[in-house]
Amino acid sequence: MGPNGSGKSTLGKLVKGLLSPSSGQVRIAGQPLKPGEISPRIGYLFSNPENQIVSSLVEEDVAFGPGNRGLEPALLALRVEESLRRVGMEAYRRHAPHLLSGGQQQKIVIAGILAMECEALVLDEPTSMIDPESRREILDLFLKLHREKSLTFLHISHSLEDALRSEELIYLEEGRVLYSGPPEEFLTSPRFSESCPLQIPPLLRLVRGLRDRGHSLPPGIRSYDELKRALLGHSLFLDTRENKNL
Ligand SMILES: Nc1ncnc2c1ncn2[C@@H]1O[C@H](COP(=O)(O)OP(=O)(O)OP(=O)(O)O)[C@@H](O)[C@H]1O
Ligand SMILES: [Mg+2]
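Structure tokens for the assembled complex are given below, as produced in the milestone run.
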């Protein structure tokens, strides 16, 4: 996260090798990226899927990247099938990508990236151009791929909701890392309210308000369910003590 012009997209492009650093070095899992080299281990997803669709048939589009890497046809067909299945678009393999919705197109592009067997994905505001329902589907898909395939996601977003779903938040300001760590810690801090004009999400305001009123809540509450469980544990503990006193 970070304000406009803070360097988020620049960081994402450096990681993929679409930009070369003027100083310093990019290392992917400890391996230095050579100047001018585009990392095959990193997938890159732009906000507008139309810019990344190259074929007039879904399955050909998904096959484009791995096909260019010289994968033999039988293996390529398997990869395409498996990738389309992972994004839930196997029924659309013979469709024309340009006639699909924005969310569906985004899934096709993701299938293409999966077919390349990347280890990490840079997502530059991937849901900014799609409707809320498709947005949720895409975000759930990222979470599923992270859990099932151990894929790492570098998700650039202006959404506090997205930030709360992440394991680590990196907040940039004027090209520098202002914060890196658990998202809820920074999003409830005065440093964030001072630097970011966006509203703190209601859940975090509630947690902060309860803590201000003396409730000791565990760290890392990121959903209403987690808050409910924490509060329930708290009141059950009090009830037991009251019973003892009686
Ligand atoms: N190749 C480059 N070399 C030097 N500076 C660049 C380069 N590309 C972009 N910049 C500058 O770096 C700054 C950060 O741009 P960047 O696109 O990374 O911002 P951002 O955080 O993605 O913003 P937004 O939220 O608007 O997408 C801008 O001032 C931009 O002009
Ligand atoms: Mg940007």
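The chain has ten helices and seven strands. The first helix runs from residue 8 to 16. Further analysis is deferred to the final report.
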